[in-house]
Structure formats: C-alpha cells, structure tokens
Design a protein that fits this description.
620 residues; alpha+beta; Rossmann fold; Dna Ligase, domain 1; 6 domains; five-stranded parallel sheet; 36 strands; globular
Amino acid sequence: MIQSLLIANRGEIACRVIRTARALGIRTVAVHSDADAGALHVRLADEAVHIGASPARESYLVGEKIIAAARATGAEAIHPGYGFLSENADFAQAVLDAGLIWVGPKPDSIRAMGLKDAAKKLMADAGVPVTPGYLGDDQSAARLKAEADAIGYPVLIKAVAGGGGKGMRKVDSAGSFADALDSCKREAASSFGNDVVLLEKWIESPRHIEVQVFGDAHGNVVHLFERDCSLQRRHQKVIEEAPAPGMDEATRDAVCGAALRAARAVNYEGAGTIEFIADGSQGLRADRIWFMEMNTRLQVEHPVTEEITGQDLVEWQLRVAAGEPLPRRQDELAITGHAIEARLYAEDPATGFLPSTGLLEHFDLGEDGRIETGVEEGDEISPFYDPMIAKLVASGDDRDEAIGSLATMLDSVEVWPVRTNAGFLVNCLLDDDFEAARLDTGFIGRKLDALVPATEADDALWRTAAVIALAEGESGDALAGFRLNAPAQPAVTLSHGGERRRLILRDEDEFAEASGFRDEQRVVVFAEGQAFSFERGVRGRTGAAASDGGLLAPMPGKVTSVDVAAGEMVTKGQRLLTLEAMKMEHAMLAPFDGVVAELNVEAGQQVQVEALLARVEAAE
C-alpha cells in the first residue's frame, strides 16, 4: 500500500481523499494557494505546501509546482481529485516520469477519451452506441452551420475538450447558431485552451445516465451500476441519484455492458465514468441510450454509488494505483437501497444564481445524513474557485425515503451571510414531477420560476424574527431555545426587504418552524434552507441597483463582451454585456425597456464587486 500521498486539489474532494487515506494509515500532503492558506484541507493534512497565488492558473493548474511539492515532502503518490489537472494526460505522464505513482488511469487512456470527437469514434468502433452528430476536422463557421442545418434543430454545440457543462450550447434555430457558436468557442478557449467543437442531435426528452466503472492493472474491469444525473442547470449537475429510477434489469445489463466495452477499449485502470444520454420519452430503453463521453477520474457524485454498494471508491483508487487487483469481482457487487445527493452551492437563486462569496460567519449543515464539505464556520468562500461548498447525501430503503431524508437535511441548512441554493434544492426534491421520477435535463429550465424560492418573508417569519430579537440571553440554535424577557405583548421594530414593521407579540400569534440568531445589527432567521435577514430598528436596504436601472458587478470578474452602445435603445431582458466570474459567464440584462444612459466598461476589462457597469433609463 502507498505510504504517503499528495492530494493535488482543494476543498471537499481533498478532505474526502484525506479521510480515506487516514483510515488506511497513509500520510497525507496538501497543497494550497494564497487564498487557501488556512483552508480545511490544509488543516486536515499531515503536511501542507504553498504552491502559488490564488488564481488556479498560478497554483493548482501548475503541474511542475505540484510535482516539486511531492518530491520535497517525500510523497510517493499524487491523487488529482476531480477538476484542475485530473484529466490532463501530460500531467499524469509527468508524475510517472518523476518516479511517482499516479492515482488515476494511464495517460494513454486519458488521451483516448479526452477529446469528445475522437472518443465517440473509438466507442463506435468498440460497439458502443453513439448519438448522431458531426465530428469532422473542418471547424469553419460555415461548415459547422451547414452540418447543424443537416442534423436538424435543436442541436448541441459541445467543446471537444470540455467538461462540467462549460463550452456547451443548445441551439434551437438556425438564426441563433452563429452567436451560440461564438460564445461556446470563447468559453472553451478560456476554460480549456481548445476551441474545437462537435455537434450532436439534441434529444428532446434527455436523461443523463452514467455508469461507474473500475479497472486494474491485471485486466479486471467491473461496473458499480448506474447513476441518474438528469437534474441540471446550464449543463451543471444539481441533484444525482443511484440507481436510476425506472431502470429495469434488462436495460441496466445493456447500458452497464456497453460501459464495460468502453472501458476495455482503452485498457482502463482506476475509476472512470461512462456517460450516456437517454431518450426518456418512452421510459428507459436499451435501444434509446447513447454514449456521450467518458470522465477519466472520480466524479463529484461518487458518494451515491458508495452508498448503494457499500464500497469506498477512493480506497479502490489507492489500492489499484498500488498495483493491487480490484477489491471485488462483478458478482460480488449489488445494489442495496437508494441514495441521492444535492450540490450545495454558494450562489443566490434570487439573482440568477450568481455566485456568493465572503466569510462564513454562521455555517451549520446539521448532523444527519452524509455531508462532504471543505469548509467550516469562519472560513471564507473565495471568488477564485468553483462555488460548490458541500454535498449533502441521503440514503434509504427506497427512493421516497431517500428524497424525504435529503429534503429534511436541506431544510435545516444554516449559512450566513453567504447565500446558498438550499431552498431551491428543497423545491426541486418536493416537486411532484421529481417525486414521480418524471425527469429529463430540461426539468429545471422549464420549472425555474416555480423552483426559485421567494425572498420575501411571510408574516410568520416576521413574528419569529421578533421573538429572536426579544429573546433572553445569547442567541440560540432553535426557536424552542428562546425565552421572552419583556412584559406582556412585547414589541420590536424590524426591517426586511425595504419594509419596516413594528411587531407586537401576542399569545395567539403563529410562528414559523425556524431557527436563527441575532447580533447588534440584525436578526437572521433560517427556514426551508433559506436565510432571512431583518435589520434591527432601522430601515433595511432596498435593491436600488435594479430599481434605478444600474447594473452592478455581483463579484470581481472580467467583461468578456459588450453588446450595446451608450445611447442605444434596449428592451427588458436584453443582454447588455457578459461578465466572466468564478469560471462562468454571466449575462447582464436590461432591467426594463429604456436607453443605455451609462456604459462604463469595455471588453477585456477587469471589474471589482459592485462596480457600476451600465445604467439604463426607463423609456418615456
């Protein structure tokens, strides 16, 4: 077994790897940027090495620094986690050339599956069904447009070097193809240094089904069944579960068999995921499932597979990397129960899911279920990295039980002042169609307005905030812990969302099922995964930026495009400019019909949080 391991990653996956390594008696080494100097993964590891400035391109993406850190600390092996350099074949080769153990597939396997066009050709040759599309070398805009026209709309433009939903655009009509292609190529070049794309026929009722595979150096390959990752927003997975609802044994055998053929075609070793797109319009059928791509690494959603199989996939990775055979044969693996995972992001659904950064002054995810996180109370959510702050995983004897348990976990999330998507996730889980497993990748897009929780507090929340404001002693963890210390019918003045109320508490009042705390300035109430802030005795701030037509930068970022000019007439919802922040592009839209009165930025410009980017004056 490996004796010392460097984890070339950060956040929750680094903490996850450290946990298993520690259980196996393996010494761990963390690496960190300036921003992560005090991060949880650094505190958990036996040793930590600083590898550069906060931007990933100056730290976590610099392979030479990571290998140097391994050598300096005597680490035998490098585990890449996921993201960053995990699917970089050149880095994997450099690790091996340095005489270190690479906890991942062989570089040749990564290369074979790294470019989506080449991978699809390879899979077709191996007898794995693939989706119709265009994989040609001619990347001219004219040729791509002609191929899209021939395939028929809608089509999907996909960066061949992409991942994580980046460099992907759905195009519904010929007229919107050129703009979508430009945006896709620009994002692909920025994220992957490669703007080559392929085209695929868009499946109208698509479900995202993926199969966990594992291989070793002794020629053994197994699958650990499938996962359903159909709930996505902008091609980013939001909720994942295992096994896939509605999957019968015959279809499971077919799709898992195809996944094994795919893995054997590249002599695969280690953990990998074969991703399929299924046409779910008539339920899951073997003849309506096609190969999309292979991820040559551990997946974010691997915990749901661990929960239904009882296996530790990180331990499997370490044992295979050490030269051991797979811990289980195929006939020793079985599905038990159901598991479901939700990705808790530091983002605000009320502002179009813009990332939320800052200090976690209050952070409590409860003690139920399985929680994978890379932060604790007092840590900071940085603008430099992916905004996922935790994964909440629940399991049960069946799907209904798992859903109920996860909804309860999310309902109890307490995070402040950083915003999260917990309330949005609760709404997804409790949606009638989700509970009935009527799923496809367009689920969230169709239902978005209904799934985004309201930001206004109802009367019961106002009264709960008043109770917390008037409670005796220090702030508590739950409503039951508060005791009023005022005379009968005590009163308090609070402000929320631009509204100010003087509240008089009476015995017959109804209160929300909530928890919360207070400080000198405010009362914060947590309910249904959301945080509601009430200013104490002063009028709360209103959303002035939206009401007066000003567009403020929600966080530090780079302006990638400006689509209007000063003095131009615009309509509500029209894109004015695009801001790239936290590895994602965010369209800044006109809040109402009017004229661009101010335009303060140009393409390529870096801006700070709350910088006034543009201002629209209402049309008369």
